[in-house]
Task: inverse folding
């Protein structure tokens, strides 16, 4: 039997990039998955087909996770479709690549709403459901090396990821008595659409690869495998911690 057979997961931003890789990883481990998306329903439909071929089940839900009502919809759909909620992955995120001096109010509000507000209320709503079930659970936040490592020119994004760092730690302590483990995964540079402008520029790619000790960007699947680990029995004594998956990037000079 696969390790996550009988478990139900929700993944926000689940139909592209790291999110799609996480959805497939959890399904391969036996979980049934609710896939949150806001655009490209064809990508979500393709994921459902792939998951069916793995012998698992998935359902897509179009939801704007900056809205509390839509987060409640994701959790209620998980329960109504699959009967429970065991794993919630706060993966959705955006950035503006703007500095303190240049970030507008609307840019700031959008980044913080999608990256941090959504993670806070998803944690709250998912935890309430898990407490009701009396069987514990896992909440996994996809943060970034920038929860800890400054990135000049991307200030709102760094603020949101730093906030997720403290959400992970504080919520983990509050929810521990209920058997709910709260952890984070902090990717470095990953080959996903959010980094497309860098990936299209050979000079930028050469510069980036040169400061990563492993010499390359991560594949989305490499992040997803860590999420799979944190969802399973091997991580049963882990909470309030971030696992950085960055190829050693944080230990280099941040001169990017």
Result:
């Amino acid at each position: 039997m696969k390790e996550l057979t009988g478990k139900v997961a929700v993944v926000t931003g689940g139909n592209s990039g790291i999110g799609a890789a996480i959805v497939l990883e959890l399904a391969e481990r036996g979980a049934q998955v609710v896939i949150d998306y806001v655009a490209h329903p064809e990508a979500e439909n393709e994921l459902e087909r792939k998951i069916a071929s793995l012998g698992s089940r998935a359902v897509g839900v179009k939801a704007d996770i900056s809205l509390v009502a839509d987060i409640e919809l994701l959790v209620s759909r998980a329960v109504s479709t699959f009967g429970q909620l065991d794993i919630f992955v706060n993966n959705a995120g955006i950035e503006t690549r703007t500095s303190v001096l240049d970030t507008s109010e609307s840019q700031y509000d959008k980044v913080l709403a999608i990256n941090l507000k959504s993670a806070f209320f998803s944690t709250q709503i998912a935890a309430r459901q898990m407490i009701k079930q009396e069987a514990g659970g896992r909440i996994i936040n996809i943060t970034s090396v920038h929860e800890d490592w400054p990135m000049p020119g991307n200030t709102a994004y760094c603020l949101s990821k730093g906030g997720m760092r403290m959400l992970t730690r504080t919520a983990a302590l509050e929810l521990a008595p209920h058997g709910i483990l709260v952890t984070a995964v902090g990717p470095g540079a990953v080959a996903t659409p959010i980094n497309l402008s860098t990936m299209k520029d050979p000079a930028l790619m050469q510069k980036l690869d040169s400061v990563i000790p492993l010499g390359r960007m991560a594949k989305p699947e490499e992040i997803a495998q860590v999420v799979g680990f944190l969802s399973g029995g091997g991580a049963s004594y882990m909470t309030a911690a971030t696992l950085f998956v960055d190829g050693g990037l944080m230990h280099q000079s941040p001169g990017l």
The first strand starts at residue 8 and ends at 11.
